[in-house]
Amino acid sequence: METTQNVFAQLSGQDDNLGDSELRVAYLDALRGQGRHVHVFLATPTTDYSARFATTPDVTFYEDRVSWARAMNATARPVYAFNAGEINPRPGVFPGPRLVKEATRAVSNGGIVLAAGIGIRNAQDVSSVKFDSAFRDAAVMSWRDQGSRDAAGFGGFAPDWAYSLGRATADWAKPDERPLLAITFRFDRPWPGDEWLAAVRAFARATSTRIVTVTQVARDSPRAVRLAEALRGDYLEPPSMRHDALDEYVRAVYRQSLAVISDRAHGLIMGASEGAYPIGSGSDPHKISRLLAAVGLGDLVGRYDQFGDFALRFETHLPTLAPAVNVARAEIADLTARIRAAMDAVA
Length: 347
What we know:
The protein is α/β, with parallel strands linked by helices. About 40% of the residues lie in helices and about 20% in strands. The protein is elongated and about 60 Å long.
């Protein structure tokens, strides 16, 4: 008799941040498979964020956590998947009591716990955090960068789930067929300044590219408009902030871009996944440095005042992009295989 394995995942994220849905859509793909049904708690299923999640027969979405948890508690051998993405644990025990209770209940019902693709916001500041055994001893425990893993002191690591999306590297346009230089920046960081602006304009001239700015996070739109004006470029306003439409729009820009310059981690990751070389430039680049270094693309990530040097070295690094993305995707495929093997063991 065929049976269905039930997987329970919380995949909520910020409604206006495309990167949040990108990584979790990829995570959901890893949890799906023949003979499985995934129960997803999105918190608010009728939003710009939730539009990125396609409705399929093997996935049920919940807006009520109580109903989601009740369904898990009534299931034998459930798979409980912690949310992927960034965490910012405060001093004390992580995860909180509710999540620990849910995970413990899943194991007591004969199931397993998964924790994959998680990153610590401030990896240098977790000495006062105690990670609960329900999280620490998950059947698969994988961080999304080495800095997070090293700070926590347990588990493995693999690249961020979002690297697995995008076109195959063999289908990328060649560098000389990419006329754009894409820029997307956070709204809540210091303005980069005149020296940086001049360096970016010079880089565009040297590479014969046209400067465009895009927005992946709704709150960043005013910054994108201002940057376009200051750089004498064009702001490419998306037709919609629904994540399904925004994903298509932004990726179409990156497929035409030689490079993407950003202090948004998933601006850089999405650009890389479409063949635009990621140049990380910011006032506080520690997080983006970790996420790019995880796939060997951290050499052109740094402070605003380092951009001129990055521009000089750009051409020598350009050929490394496709191999790095291929390796990242292979490592994510390996993580996916380990997840599915762990689920098969309790099916």
